[in-house]
TrEMBL record:
This is Beta-xylanase. Residues 63-100 have a biased composition (Low complexity). Residues 1-17 form the signal peptide. Keywords: Carbohydrate metabolism, Glycosidase, Hydrolase, Polysaccharide degradation, Signal. Gene3D superfamilies: Glycosidases.
């Protein structure tokens, strides 16, 4: 009886508590707060998950009956589109929900129903201009990452204080209109930085440039970005600190202190990530990456999340033990994100490569599902038509889960199976 009374007393507090931006605020079985902080509104993304998103453009509505549709996608070959069967169930329910435009009904909803935050894809105005690509993003994704439009060279190519916002603004507008969250990508990176930054050779000047750039970009999109790749690819493959204008001028890792502290000041609610590639297997790079994050956090640098890009090759021996990698990253006590997933084959794959790709996608996705710290998965593109792989790795391709004609490939089912594993 005492337990019952105690629960009854605290329940109103839970219901009335305001949830932070990006926090959960509803869904079947949810017993926490259902209202959001100022500037955010509770948006129902699927029957199991409602989230506090930017209130810009959202309209509140009341529903008294919720219909849940479960979709099952059949195994398919690359040349066929999976058949979909649906079974609807209804649950009488009175609740207040919001709408922020079309809501995805594919991979993102499946992964949210299993307790993860998102399935996302990279995009930019160039790919969004293709209606097939845009429609897949509307129905399959819950998160978007700018492939190029928010990189330093894209936003401020000519001089400090001069900005090109057009492409980034278009991506943000698409995300807001269609109810998607955003990952920002990226600030401190040795590539795609403007020449005027590369030519800085004074620590105080470079510190000011980093702080000013981050304040301008994050300030413009404050409250609209779930997480930022504050720094990207800061390690060489051998585990040493990467040579860059940042490491040369600072002479140590403190350029990361500058960047992460500037990002926290610019948007205190955004998650701040350190992102890198080739963290997919046990190596000195993975070990040193984890140690660096722990060191940064120990001295108060606000690192909230780590990202494994996961640009993989079909049949790679590390893929079956991918969960071990995620477990290692999770020892940083941060949110773990798979940030740029693709699994490439030869440009014209054999049937065995196609079959292996299905298995590999399943294993990677399953590893995230079985790692509590893993929040979500971003695939680095929708269609093979727009993949970065063929132009970077000669003779290789076929890395994504839609083909050149925007048909679902066999590995789509591998992704679904991984979610359901």
């Amino acid at each position: 009886m005492k337990t019952y009374v105690a629960l009854a007393l605290v329940a109103p507090v839970l219901v009335s508590a305001q949830q932070p931006m990006w926090g959960q605020c509803g869904g079947l079985g949810w017993t926490g707060g259902t209202s959001c902080v100022a500037g955010a509104a509770c948006s129902t993304l699927n029957p199991y998950y409602a989230q506090c998103l930017s209130a810009v453009g959202q309209q509140t509505s009341t529903t008294t009956l919720r219909t849940t549709t479960r979709s099952t996608t059949a195994q398919t070959t690359p040349s066929t589109t999976p058949a979909t069967t649906t079974a609807a169930t209804t649950t009488p329910r009175t609740t207040t929900t919001t709408s922020s435009g079309p809501v995805g009904t594919g991979l993102d909803n499946l992964i949210k129903a299993k307790g993860k935050k998102y399935v996302g894809f990279c995009a930019d105005p160039g790919t969004l201009s293709n209606s097939q690509n845009a429609n897949i993003l509307r129905t399959e994704s819950g998160q978007l990452t700018p492939e190029n439009s928010m990189k330093w060279e894209s936003i401020s190519p000519n001089s400090q204080g001069s900005y090109n916002w057009g492409n980034a603004d278009q991506l943000v507008a698409f995300a807001e209109t269609n109810g998607k969250i955003l990952r920002g990508h990226t600030f401190v990176w040795h590539q795609q930085i403007p020449n005027w930054v590369k030519n800085i050779n004074n620590k105080a000047t470079l510190t000011s440039a980093i702080q000013t750039h981050i304040a301008a970009v994050m300030g413009r999109y404050k409250g609209k970005i779930y997480a930022w790749d504050v720094a990207n690819e800061v390690f060489e493959d051998n585990g040493s600190r990467r040579d860059s204008v940042f490491s040369r001028v600072f002479g140590d890792w403190t350029f990361l202190d500058v960047a992460f502290n500037a990002a926290r000041a610019a948007d205190p609610n955004a998650k701040l990530c350190l992102n890198d590639y080739n963290l997919d297997y046990s190596s000195s790079k993975l070990t040193n990456f984890v140690d660096l994050v722990k060191t940064l956090k120990a001295r108060g640098v606000p690192v909230d999340c780590v990202g494994s890009q996961s640009h993989l090759v079909v049949g790679n021996g590390a893929i079956p033990s991918f969960k071990t990698t995620l477990d290692s990253l999770a020892t940083t006590n941060t949110e773990v994100q798979i940030t740029e997933l693709d699994i490439r084959t030869s440009a014209s794959p054999s049937s065995s490569q196609i079959s292996q790709q299905v298995t590999d996608y399943r294993n990677v996705v399953s590893a995230c599902m079985k790692t509590s710290a893993c929040a979500g998965i971003t695939v680095w593109g929708v269609s093979d038509k727009d993949s970065w792989v063929p132009s970077t790795f000669s003779g290789q391709g076929y890395a994504l889960i839609w083909d050149n004609n925007f048909n679902k490939k066999a590995c789509y089912q591998g992704f679904v199976d991984g979610i359901n594993s």
